[in-house]
Records
---
Amino acid sequence: MTVAGHDGFPPACQQHECDHRHGGILRPSGASLRPFAPVHLAAKAEPSGDITLTWTRRSRDPAADSWETTEVPLLDQPEAWEIDIPDGSTVKRTLTAGTATVAYSTDDQVVDWGATLAPGAALTIRVAQLSPSLGRGTPAKATLTIA
């Protein structure tokens, strides 16, 4: 992926007369602009059998380092998340959310695993914030014990 509007930067000696041209063009990938991976991933079984998945959003905004705010500024708007439920290298399901929480329903669990997941079971998830211009941010991956 390249950053829109950037065709890349040629090596410096291609801009001047020189005998030693180094091949290649540097094309910005936008990796430093993508949303950070979230932290504090957790899974909690509800009385209904649904599993509530939660996490904490991080931000590149300098104000995110303040001790005076309880929530970091949202740079990529609208807030959007993709939550993968993998089984090895295969993604069984991708959930979407507009906040830092999502329900993994009992119906979805039965389709994915053949039964609901009980407290104490392990569940691997990958959570990534979406950027409207750059797509998925850096994902956080964790194998959680369902509380």
---
Amino acid sequence: MKKSAIILLIPLLLISLTTFASAAFFMEQPISEGGTIGVLTYNMGLSYPVTWGEFIVAIVILLMLGFSFYDIISTLTMFSRLTSGIIAAGLAIIAVITRVVAAFTGWVLIFTAWMGVLSVFGSVVSAFVVWFLIHWGFSGIGKWLYRRKAYMEAFKTGTTITKGGKILKQVGEELK
């Protein structure tokens, strides 16, 4: 496992060395004005000025991806440990450089937010539709709703169908 950790840390060290050796650590000027893109700006999506917190989070994400990829690849394939480590490190670096994690996370959060909005609006609209159908619409729906509520209550309490009739009568009296 020690060799695996070292193999995963070598690409990180190389990125760090090229970053520190580079005069353009971060993009301080727009490219149109003769500025250059720093290694961290390009590779990790960090923008100038970068706080230590952002930098540490970027490194932690890189390490988490690397170790996760290594575990998956070494467990599910026939590659040697060295090959699994190299592939895992490469995939982690590619995922960070191409900003796949940020894009995927953003897409999932957007999708989840839309589903939440649709479910809230759907439940509000359906409540008004049911109210309209019960009070002004078809009388059969009201009976169906009362019967459904009684069956649900009977199921929750574990009562039989005959006792469910008594519960149905109570529900009908409550709704009057």
---
Amino acid sequence: MKEVLLKLIELLKTIIERYPANWAIKVIMAISVFIILPILKMAPYLRDYFSFLLTLLVFCGLILLDLKAEGDKAKKIMPLILKLKGKPRGETTE
């Protein structure tokens, strides 16, 4: 049990080092909700199959909504970044 938790901590450390903070937080939440809490028997929402699927569906839905919000934010910010760089709106950076 101790070895598993140490490997999970090492995995989280690697994720935080490699990926942006926003994705690291999402992965940490997923690991805690679906792996660590059931191991510690602190997850009453995962006791039966239906509850697990419902939790998984809600979690994935929230991540998809967050991705959509990030995409919308990027669409609004990108023209400003290109304007600051002095490039016309239609050009892309290479």
---
Amino acid sequence: MTGGVFAVISHGCPGARCKETARTAGRYLGSGTSDSVVVVPNNPKSDQRRNPFSLVYGSNTLLLVEIQADTARVTYYDELANEQCLRLNLDLLVGKRAIVVDTMAKYKKKEAADYNKMVRSRQFLVGDLVLRPRQTSAHGKLGKLESPWKGPYIIQRIVGPVTYELEILEGRQVPSSWNACHLRKYYV
């Protein structure tokens, strides 16, 4: 059995454990095979109930342990029935993939809706007074008693949906535009 590539399917095998599994399988199979052992993670996602291997090839894998230990799956193997099952699985594979894609789309839509419920949009009007974050000083830190906000500034113009141009109270324009996430309403 030396010289070939062996696939060891490891369920729930992250990082270093995959390499350890490959070395163990190589020692079990004989000398010189540890370099040719390939570990393929085959973890089913909980929301899809499908594993990556079955979504690509249409059927589950056979473990090397099952071949060596003469399990019922290996003992009662019928090549003709297996070929028919594989063809049927490949025919049904398009439907399985469509179900998984639909499930993922529903999941993403629900996640977006949950996230958007928590987001508070900040919209300012022209003429509103706002504060902006203070830039750090030359030595890199704000003083202990310094306010982290600088201003007030007046919203001069709305550039985009959440982008604003500011001006100082004396009427001089601030050189760059500011996003609403960096601004805070100033209450007088």
